[in-house]
Every structure is written in C-alpha cells, then in structure tokens.
Amino acid sequence: MRFIATTSPAAEGALLLDNTADVLQRAEEIHRQAAVLLQFPKWTDGRAYSQAVLLRGRLRYVGEIRASGEVLADMLPLLRRCGFDAVQLRADQKLESAQRALGFFSTQYQTVPPERHDSQSPK
User: Fold this and answer.
1) Domains of the chain
2) Which class for 96: exposed (0-12), middle (13-18), buried (19 or more C-beta within 10 A)?
C-alpha cells in the first residue's frame, strides 16, 4: 500500500469519483484512467469500499485505486482487501500507526471470490 501525503494534490490524470457515483455505469470512462480516487466523506460511510470491490472484481480495473478524505489508520486492512493501492490519510493520522495496522491480519477468515484472485495480489 502506498501512502500519499495529505497535502498532495490528486494524481494528474486521476478520475475523482464521489462515493455516490455508479462505477458500473462509468466503466468506459474509468478504464481510460490510470488512477481512480475514491472519497470517504466520513469514516463511517463505507460506499467507497463497495466501489473499489466493483472496480477490481466486476470491471477488472488494474489501475491505481486511491482512498482519500476521512481515512483512518484502522481502515487500512479492509482498504487493502477491497483493492485500494494507495491512501491519503486524514491529517491527524500517523503514518507509523497506519503501517502497523497493515500488519494486524496476515490472513483472512473469509474467502475471496475466484474472479478476484488475479486482481488481489498484495500491494
């Protein structure tokens, strides 16, 4: 997982999607982009997780998926599992805590659907 400074602007050429956007309807536009930036307006709003799963699973999107907004360190294991490659942590989050959170779970007790195995290589 790549960590991006909170003050960094969106990647050039990245498609910024609101967490209410229907990624399936925007598939053609998404596939033309090198990166997709998914928003967490509140840490309790998990719609961007679902968007990432759809991007990796159904759309087979292979570009970068970046989480931004209210991204907390303890969200990182699930972000990685859902297909995110990069994160912009909320300003009050410590990088050391986020890196440690990635090591909490070495395996998952839930299986990954077969169609996601190819796109879920460790980042």
Assistant:
1) 2-108 (3.20.20.70)
2) exposed
